[in-house]
């Protein structure tokens, strides 16, 4: 709060007080008070008036700064009313009590919403683990069919597994710290696991996967990194071109490591590229080919942010797409 804001807020009150002082001076002058005495009296009154306003301004500004400091230090801002000291005068105290009551009601509503969200997330996680059993059983049953039917059913089951896995990570992404373990991990192991998880999809679409320079190590959560890389492989398979090839390569960048997934697919239109990480955005390619949910890259961005991974994408329509994951140096990780 600035002095100008303080004065403009009290303009009516200040004008009334100055008018009262002027009327008092006129009354004293009319009753025969000597001009010299009247001037001294007016000077003293104005001095007291100015000092009172300065004191009031300083007190209010200090109180506001204290409140701002308390608010900035809170992780859960909605608890602000419970943490601030009450004001001194009666009217402000009554208003503060009303605000605190409203804040407590909101805190209760937030707690209920968080509990419901937590229960829903736990249900989704249980459902995901339970649904894996019939999927596995269906895969075993597929072995009894002939080659073409078996391939088609296996491919569809692979799509079901991909959607189920995406639902699991979406639920966990709300509280990633509960399921995240950052440790030294081999890049080759991450890539091999992601490829193995999507082997059926890659084979079905005739995609050749090439790897380069994956002999290094990074500090990350292996399970989450495999999921992110798997989403990139799924996108490359869905938007493949002729003679599809996916190249997974890595190179050091100081103490960081850059992992690039490049495909020679149909690419992304330039005007759509800034929106590919938005939730639910499918783009013209997703609408034309179908099967896109617009959640894969959104989840990649969200999980990469928690893992402190850089995530960048470049593409040329008709030529291919490159997605780069930049793994931070160990000493730069705040969650280790």
Task: Compute the CA-based radius of gyration.
Answer: 33 Å
Unreliable parts: none
In round numbers, the mean pLDDT is 83
Distance between the termini: 41 Å
Give the overall shape, derived from the CA principal axes: elongated
Q: Which structural class do you get from the secondary structure elements?
A: alpha+beta
Q: Which strands sit side by side, in order, in the main sheet?
A: 2-4-5-7-6
| Helix-strand pattern | HHHHHHEHHEEHEEHHEE
Count of helical segments? 11
Share of residues in helices: 55-70%
Q: What's the number of extended β-strand segments? A: 7
Which band does the percent of strand residues land in?
Answer: 5-15%
Main sheet attributes: strand count, strand direction, barrel closure = 5 strands, mixed
């Amino acid at each position: 709060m600035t002095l100008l804001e303080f004065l403009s807020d009290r303009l009516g009150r200040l004008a009334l007080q100055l008018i009262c002082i002027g009327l008092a001076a006129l009354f004293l002058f009319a009753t025969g008070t000597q001009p010299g005495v009247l001037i001294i009296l007016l000077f003293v009154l104005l001095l007291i008036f100015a000092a009172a306003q300065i004191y009031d301004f300083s007190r209010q500004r200090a109180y506001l700064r204290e409140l701002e400091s308390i608010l900035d230090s809170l992780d859960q801002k909605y608890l602000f009313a419970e943490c601030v000291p009450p004001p001194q005068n009666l009217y402000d105290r009554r208003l503060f009590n009303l605000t605190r009551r409203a804040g407590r009601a909101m805190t209760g509503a937030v707690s209920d919403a968080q509990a419901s969200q937590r229960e829903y997330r736990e249900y989704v996680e249980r459902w995901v683990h339970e649904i894996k059993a019939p999927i596995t059983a269906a895969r075993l049953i597929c072995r009894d069919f002939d080659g073409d039917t078996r391939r088609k059913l296996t491919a569809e089951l692979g799509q079901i597994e991909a959607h189920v896995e995406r639902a699991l990570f979406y639920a966990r992404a709300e509280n990633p710290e509960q399921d995240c373990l950052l440790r030294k991990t081999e890049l080759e192991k991450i890539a091999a696991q992601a490829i193995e998880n999507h082997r059926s999809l890659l084979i079905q679409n005739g995609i050749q996967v090439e790897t380069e320079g994956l002999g290094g190590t990074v500090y990350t959560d292996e399970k989450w990194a495999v999921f992110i890389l798997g989403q990139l492989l799924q996108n490359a398979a869905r938007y493949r071109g002729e003679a599809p090839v996916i190249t997974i390569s890595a190179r050091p960048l100081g103490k960081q490591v850059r992992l690039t997934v490049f495909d020679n697919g149909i690419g992304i239109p330039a005007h759509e590229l800034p929106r590919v990480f938005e939730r639910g955005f499918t783009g013209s390619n997703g609408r034309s080919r179908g099967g896109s949910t617009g959640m894969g890259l959104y989840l990649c961005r969200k999980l990469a942010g928690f893992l402190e991974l850089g995530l960048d994408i470049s593409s040329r329509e008709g030529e291919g797409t490159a997605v780069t994951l930049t793994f931070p140096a160990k000493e730069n990780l705040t969650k280790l």
